[in-house]
Structure formats: structure tokens, C-alpha cells
Amino acid sequence: MNQGQLETLIFILNDVDLLNEVLRAWEEQGVRGVTVLRSTGLGRIGNALYRDDAPLFPSLRELLEDDEMHHFTLLSVVQSSQVEHLVAVTEQITGSLNNPNTGFIVTMPVGRVFGGTRNFE
Predict the structure, then answer these.
(1) How does pLDDT run across 45-63, given as a tens digit for each residue?
(2) At the topology level of CATH, where does 6-40+70-114 sit?
(3) Which of 14, 55, 67, 113 is deepest in the core (most CB within 10 A)?
(4) What are the residue boundaries of the structural domains of the chain, listed by start?
(5) Residue 16 vs residues 21, 86, 101, 114: alpha-carbon distances, Å
(6) Is the full-model pTM beyond 0.85?
């Protein structure tokens, strides 16, 4: 099968309220498979430790259960030719990813794919 160049697209979305809109927009652009993980970063964990209402010795589990601590990480394998357009569509929803507290996108080339290849035909 000629898949062309594939890339893993990783998007850290800071505003959890935008998740459905981003997923809908990506699907409209032909993205068929997206894994969504609830995640948090070191900056958010560090800030939570210094809140006035934080327990004296909070556990990592307690910090991760806080709804304010989360963002979403979206993972997908897409055609390389789609990446720039997906970034543009995403920024129409989030605003410029260069702005603080929007998120960021990272891509990596894909060497091989095992299973799920029907998404790239």
C-alpha cells in the first residue's frame, strides 16, 4: 500500500472546553483516528502545590484529581500533507498556538504502521 509520508501529530490542548470542537474539525479534515488522553504538565502541578487551599502534603493523586489540573493530549497518525492545514484549523478554534495557555503541536515522522492502516488509504 502506498501510504505517502505519515506523521504522528501530538496536540496538547489547554482549554478542555474546546476538545469536541477540535475533534469535529479534525474529522471534517479527514482525520479518522484520534486517541485522547487526559493529562497535566509539570507547570500545573507545581502551581497547585503553592495554592493557598492546597493541603500541607498533597499527594500526586490528589493533585491529578483536581479538574483545574487537566488538559487533553490528542494523538493521531496523519498524512504529512495534512499537517499544516490541521494546524491552521486548530488555530481557528484555539487562537494562535504562539499565545500562552492555548497548547502546542508536535509532529514526528512515522517509520511504519502495524494495524489500522485502512485510515491512511
Answers:
(1) 555 445 555 555 555 555 5
(2) Alpha-Beta Plaits (3.30.70)
(3) 14
(4) 6-40+70-114
(5) 10, 18, 11, 31
(6) no
